[in-house]
Amino acid sequence: MRPFLQAVSYIFHPLFIPIAGTIAYFIITPKYSPIEEQSGNILPIFILTVIIPIIAYLILKNVGLINSIFAPTIKERRYPLYISILLLLMVIYKVIPNNYTAELYYYFLGLIAASMASLLLLYLNFKSSLHLMGMGSIFMYLTCLSVHFEINITLALSALILLAGLVASARLYLKAHSKAELLVGFLIGAVSQLLTIKFWL
Description:
Layout: H1 2-11, H2 17-28, H3 35-62, H4 74-95, H5 102-123, H6 130-149, H7 154-173, H8 179-194
């Protein structure tokens, strides 16, 4: 059971949430998106939010600032969040303006807000779950896309809820978080996306 739940923690790592939301947008949207626009968003976002953070993690681990990719302690979690916020800001200011998509712009704005809220809680000595923050973010984003485009993606949303439950169970089983930390993480992600919808929905 433990290896399976560890695999779940890796597969649904918050590192993959930005690119997952980006790909989901282009799958769901009924608007015509030229291949140039899709690749102009997906490729640089993948590099900035997946490749560079992995390289940064390897550097942080080599210099002894982080011991695990899950950054279990409050002190360790600050560094990935600093880097994540910086890279998400780069997406907002450097990538999206070249192929502007309002829905993606506000999705990333919500991710930045959620990351900053999680960082603030660290300074209050509270370690909210970044895994559940990611799951809450993408769930609320897809829900809003469904309403915005009037498309029924109930099955996808149901699957996301089940996956969020699986991720929460994995984090609890591995003793990475308490129930309160998981709940707060999910709420931070969901509410951050919810607060942006008045600008694009």
